[in-house]
């Protein structure tokens, strides 16, 4: 299976990256709906999509307003947005407020619990999604997605640490996509903002014994590869890379 990186930064887009959104084209599953979602149409391989929101901060939901170009406003049977009940209510009340977005689209909004069934992949296997709470201002959730022979964890907007509560939830996944807004050494700022430093994310990946770590939600002010040094992370967890927009990740 494949994961397409539609957007890999946080807070605001820059010349290289858009904000958080990831697509599993084979099954029509989208993780978060940041500004990178404008790229959805050219990579979509299904008639229906299921969008799973980690939380409702603008850099993770603003792309929901872009879907009209792909599906129109009356797409109840094509677009389902999943998230915790309070976050969905915030999206409907604020993002689609008449003074902001005058024609509210007719999508399904589905409150998300601890588990959810996912569409079948090309092998005919249904998948499962499990959620777990993350520490972040306003609340966020991580996700583990699994089909037979394929597993992925998506952890964004939280403060990573070696003994993080969610390590058991992601243990052994083939691919861990984890935010690291900051490079190593900015622990105080990471704690203040509810984000992660790269060295701590590498420690989480090592502790959870994942197959591969792909770092996302990088600081939008870091605009060059050399701004984000992976050498220390590689000493802790060798299979670490930084996601770039439009990367296609096999898992």
Automatic annotation (TrEMBL):
One Pfam family hit? Lactamase_B_2
What Gene Ontology molecular-function terms does this entry list? 3'-tRNA processing endoribonuclease activity
Q: Which InterPro entries match?
A: Metallo-B-lactamas (IPR001279), RibonucZ/Hydroxyglut_hydro (IPR036866)
The organism's place on the tree of life at top rank: Bacteria
Q: Where is the Metallo-beta-lactamase domain?
A: 29-217
Name of the protein: MBL fold metallo-hydrolase
Whose protein is this, by species? Answer: Aeoliella straminimaris
């Amino acid at each position: 299976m494949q994961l397409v990186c539609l957007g890999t930064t946080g807070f605001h887009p820059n010349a290289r990256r858009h904000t958080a959104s990831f697509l599993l084209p084979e099954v029509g599953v989208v993780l978060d709906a940041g500004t990178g979602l404008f790229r959805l149409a050219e990579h979509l391989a299904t008639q229906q999509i299921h969008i799973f929101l980690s939380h409702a901060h603008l850099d993770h939901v603003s792309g929901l307003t872009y879907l009209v170009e792909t599906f129109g406003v009356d797409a109840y049977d094509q677009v389902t947005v999943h998230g915790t009940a309070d976050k969905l209510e915030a999206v409907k009340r604020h993002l689609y407020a008449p003074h902001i977005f005058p024609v509210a689209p007719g999508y399904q909004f589905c409150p998300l619990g601890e588990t959810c069934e996912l569409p079948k992949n090309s092998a005919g296997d249904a998948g499962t999604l499990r959620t777990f709470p993350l520490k972040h201002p306003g609340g966020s959730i991580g996700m583990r997605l699994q089909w037979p022979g394929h597993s992925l964890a998506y952890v964004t907007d939280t403060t990573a640490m070696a003994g993080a509560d969610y390590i058991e939830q992601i243990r052994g996944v083939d691919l861990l996509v984890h935010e690291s807004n900051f490079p190593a050494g900015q622990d105080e700022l990471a704690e203040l903002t509810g984000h992660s430093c790269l060295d701590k994310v590498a420690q989480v990946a090592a502790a959870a014994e994942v197959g591969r770590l792909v770092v996302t939600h990088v600081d939008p002010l870091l605009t060059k590869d050399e701004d984000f040094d992976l050498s220390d992370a590689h000493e802790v967890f060798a299979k670490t890379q930084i996601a770039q927009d439009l990367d296609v990740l096999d898992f």
